[in-house]
Amino acid sequence: MSDGGAATVLIDTVAWVRVEQGRILCARSRGKDVFYIPGGKREGAESDLETLLREVEEELAVALLPATATHLGTYEAQAHGQPDGVLVRMSCYSGDYLGTSAASNEIEEIRWLSYGDRGRVAPVDQLLFDDLRASGELT
């Protein structure tokens, strides 16, 4: 018998955190009203690093340098635009890259955002914005 409580659904994602001159690189997918930290969901048994490399290349048309990838932290929050109880877990990595970033595939727009843009990103990304602001990286 069910107790009537909703089961929690967890969306497991990996994200690339790129901060330059006090701003963070964010992307907006076609048809979406908020910006996200670039990245996405793993496919099959992909590792965090494999997911990160694939997603960043797909979304931004740049190649992350695997040896420079560093785990910055993992955040969890209610998933934007999903029913209550659907959470997103975002494992965040920094890393150097080759190429020039450009919106690709489902990405309609990329933009460098400051802490003042916090309200324009998904709830899980807002947690990262808060930490980056507290550490003095995001202005």
Task: Write a concise synopsis of the structure shown.
This protein has 139 residues and is α+β, with helices and mostly antiparallel strands. The chain has helices at residues 48-60, 123-134; strands at residues 9-16, 19-20, 23-29, 39-41, 63-64, 70-78, 86-94, 97-98, 107-113.
> How many domains make up the 3D coordinates?
1
Sheet of most strands? 4 strands, mixed
Quickly give the CATH architecture: Alpha-Beta Complex
What Rg is obtained from the alpha carbons, in whole angstroms? 15 Å
Gap between N and C termini, in Å? 51 Å
Helicity, as a percent range: 10-25%
- Unreliable residue runs: none
Return the average pLDDT rounded to an integer: 94
Order of helices and strands: EEEEHEEEEEH
CATH class: Alpha Beta
Molecular shape: globular
Report on the architecture of this protein.
- InterPro entries: NUDIX_hydrolase-like_dom_sf, NUDIX_hydrolase_dom.
- Residues 1-134 form the Nudix hydrolase domain.
- This protein has 139 residues and is of the alpha+beta class.
- It has one domain (9-134): Nucleoside Triphosphate Pyrophosphohydrolase.
- Helix content is 18%, strand content 35%.
- The chain contains two helices and nine strands.
- It has helices at residues 48-60, 123-134; strands spanning 9-16, 19-20, 23-29, 39-41, 63-64, 70-78, 86-94, 97-98, 107-113.
- Strands 4-1-7-6 form a four-stranded mixed sheet.
- The longest helix has 13 residues, at 48-60.
- The mean pLDDT is 94.
From the structure above, extract its key features:
Nucleoside Triphosphate Pyrophosphohydrolase, NUDIX_hydrolase_dom, NUDIX domain-containing protein, 4-stranded mixed beta sheet, 139 residues, NUDIX_hydrolase-like_dom_sf
